[in-house]
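This part of the workshop introduces the protein records we will be handling. Getting from the letters to the tokens is the skill we practise here. The record below serves as our worked example for the rest of this section.

…
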Amino acid sequence: MSQCPYSHGNAEQWHDAKLDFSNDMSYGDYLDLKRILSAQHPLSEDHNELLFIIQHQTSELWMKLMLHELRAAREQLKQGDLPPAFKMLARVSRIFDQMVHAWAVLATMTPSEYVAFRPSLGQSSGFQSFQYREIEFILGNKSVPLMQPHAHRPELLDGLQKSLEEPSLYDEAIRLLAKAGLPIDAERLEQVAPTRTLRNDSVEAAWKVVYQNPSRYWDLYQLAEKFIDLEDSFRQWRFRHVTTVERIIGFKQGSGGTEGVGYLRKMLDTELFPELWSLRSTL
């Protein structure tokens, strides 16, 4: 048997690290790196296109983890088991923080570098991300028209339709307020609306009681602050997004047909948990 050309030396000099993986699973095997690292296919010869692709692919991986955590957190709220949900929501907030910092890498791209490969994008745009759309749906910012870009992919459309019809994370939290004996309008309590969450007086009044009596409603108080942390991080991600886009393309139309920066700026005004923000003016 011929000796492996890379077998010089022994494991001792590498602190007993395992070096032979001919019959065992390696790090690359476990992470399926062969497929992941071969999933980048620039359509131009421009040097900077790879940065653009990797930026958005890594964002989609983080969003996959976000959905994993948000779905699980919603289930914990449904069951009334809040402590595990706190950890999951905190993790989602930190993922948004990670994605905020990632924009700094894309921001190294100049306008002239971007326009060199932009024609390769065709009509594709982050606006069409089905994972991002589902994140917004589960957080309560729902919209039937925004499902249309996925109509050609039945499996994606079915997933979004399911998310549209399910209670949002915030809907489940409002049900917990009612279970705690706090009065919530019956219509709002049963509502699973296919639109963004709208402010409700009874919900704000209930959260106000929670904030005024934190020791009595400690878990709900902590849940409210986890929601605020999450939306705070989400807003920062959105702001960094619009700033990066303006830095690179100015006020040009987005590649997917949106008005670009104008559309993104409008999204900055969207509130996911409106009562938790408005009550701060009355405490």
DSSP finds 13 helices and no strands in the chain. The chain has one domain: 48-281. The first helix runs from residue 27 to 31.
